[in-house]
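Task 17 of the worksheet. Students: predict the tertiary structure of the chain below and write it out as structure tokens. Keep your answer in the requested format; marks are given for formatting as well as content.
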Amino acid sequence: MFKRLKITAISALCTLLCALFTANAALPDSLCVFGAESTAVEEKLASPVFTAAVDGNVATVKLWGLLPVKSLSLKVLDQKSLYLGGTAFGVKYFTKGVLVVGLCAVEGFGGSVCPAEEAGIQKGDIVLSAAGKELENAESLKNIIAETGGNALPLEVQRGDDVFTTAIYPALSAADNNYKGGMWVRDSTAGIGTVTYICADGKHFGGLGHGICDTDTGTLMPLDTGAVVDVDINTVRKGTAGYPGELKGEMGNLRRGYLTANTETGVYGIWETVPEALGELVPVGLSDTVKKGKAQIFSTVDGKRQSYEIEIEEIEAGAEENRNMLIRVTDKALLAKTGGIVQGMSGSPIVQNGKIIGAVTHVLINDPTRGYGIFIENMLAEQR
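Model answer:
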């Protein structure tokens, strides 16, 4: 009798372990949900055998409400519906600190030297301060270096997520008799992009679908201030294989809003002047609703926002943050105007089955009819 009970117990334990293993394998590692309530997670799991307890951005899933199965990372969204973007906007962008875009030798009276390189500074670094003073622009760094007399100049430098201190010994240039640091730096940029969405409050917005990066280094430019202005698109340079096209226009002088963040998933900001004709709110479609096939993008290429037909060819949920879909332009009118996707169209919202599901982010250089898109949930997760 005892032996039979022992066998039964072992069999039950094996069945339980098998159930736990199967349940664990069936659950995703992460979920995107509207709101941080347990019911939102359980609705997403769509199985009566699972319950969830939410703590911040982590959900602990239990089997039959008793046995912990897995901890899921949560991407919690506050916005269930958005006003559709698709309009062009201009950005006048100023960095926090100055970005090192190149190193160069200083031809001095005693020979050639690169003070920045000797101090361990690299292309793509961000110089935050010099001699304890925050840098407002490239000119301020130039002036501080000129006043050193060749003595050690302490610098605070950011490289990726790390911040460190170093010191350069400026060299006296034989060409103009001024002290120099041996580095080229940049403190600002300007460009044209497309608004992806405006939040239900009519003020907060997201655009581009990728960050503003330096053209020489590819480094994400740290934001100090960024003015959002109107732009009048007046020229379209058509894209061809190996030669990306571009939207060109004239930027206005009146500030319409400002940026609050520059991230890998886009730029975010606040309108000071609420855009006119926002239209109707459009529901948000999460990544698990995105399907291969027909969709539309909304963009402004000739003075007014229009919708254009595209095809979603591939869905890559585990890809880079801003390259989740491979898309192809099929709209004959857009192909005739632009050749496909061109610079300035980044941020154009993607709509499928009446829901905003993402935004255009990149063009394939060798095939401008194709490009990448980001899931809207990845942008909304960074919305501030």
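Marker's comment: Residues 12-17 have pLDDT under 50 and may be disordered. The chain is about 15% helix and 50% strand.
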